[in-house]
Amino acid sequence: MNLRFFFVTLVAVFTAVADAGSINHDQVRPFAQPKPATVSEKAAVKFNPQIHITNGCHPYPAVNAAGETSGGLQTNGAPSAGCKGSGWGSQVYGRSTWYKGRWAIMYSWYFPKDSPSTTLGHRHDWEHVVVWIDNPAVANPKILAVTPSAHSGYSKYAPPKAGTVTGNTAKVNYESHWPVNHALDSTDVGGDAQDLIMWEQQHGKLRRRQCTHERWKLHDESRKGFPVVDEGRTRN
C-alpha cells in the first residue's frame, strides 16, 4: 500500500454530496466531536494535534450534516481577509490505519483559500499531518514520528524535533513564505485544537451519498483534494 494514495482525496467522506450545494464558508457548521468508542477513535482523540496560524486563513469546517460544502473564498484582499476564524467553530478530519508496522493517524484541516498575497494562490486548501504511534491498543502509546504535508509531499520528523510535541500533542504551523503557497511544518509554538470527526463516525447514508459525488479535487482549485480516501488503499 502506498500511504500517499491512502491519504489522497477524501471527497468520498467529508465533501460534497450529489444533491447538496455549497454555501458561504462562514455558514458551515462543524460536527460536534463524538464520544470515542473504539480503540482507534480513542487514540485519535488522545493525539489530536494543535495548529498554529502564522499567516493566512484559519481552518474552517468543510461540510455540514446536510452535506452542504464550503464555497471557499477568492484570493482577493489580505491572506487572512474573510477567514480569520468561524463563529461556529472549526473542525479537524481524521482517519487511521496500520502502515508498515506503525499506526498512522491522519488529521486534515480545510482552509477557504490559500493566498500568500492578494490575487496569488487559489480557492480552497487542504493540509494535513500524519502522527505515527507504536500501537493504539497499548496502555501508553507513544509518538514515533510526525509528518506534516509540504509542497512536494511531506516533511518527516522521526523522532519529532525537541519542543514540537508536548505530552500527546504534536504542534504544527500553517505558514506561507511569499510567494509560495501555504503548507504545514512542525513547530514549538502552541496553537489550537479543533473538534475531531473520524471517517467511521460519519453515518453510512451520508458516506454513501458522498462517495457518489464528483471528486472534491475537481471542486478544489488547488487540486490537492481531501487527503483520505478508500480508493488506492491497496496500491503498492
Automatic annotation (TrEMBL):
Record's signal peptide: 1-20
Q: Which domain of life is it from?
A: Eukaryota
Q: Does the keyword Secreted apply?
A: yes
GO cellular component terms, A-Z = extracellular region
- Cite the entry's keywords alphabetically: Secreted, Signal, Virulence
Chief subcellular location equals secreted
**Cross-referenced Pfam families, in alphabetical order?**
NPP1
Report the transmembrane regions from the record: none
PANTHER family per the record?
Answer: DOMAIN PROTEIN, PUTATIVE (AFU_ORTHOLOGUE AFUA_5G00600)-RELATED
Family per similarity comment: Belongs to the Necrosis inducing protein (NPP1) family.
Which protein is depicted? Necrosis inducing-like protein NPP1 type
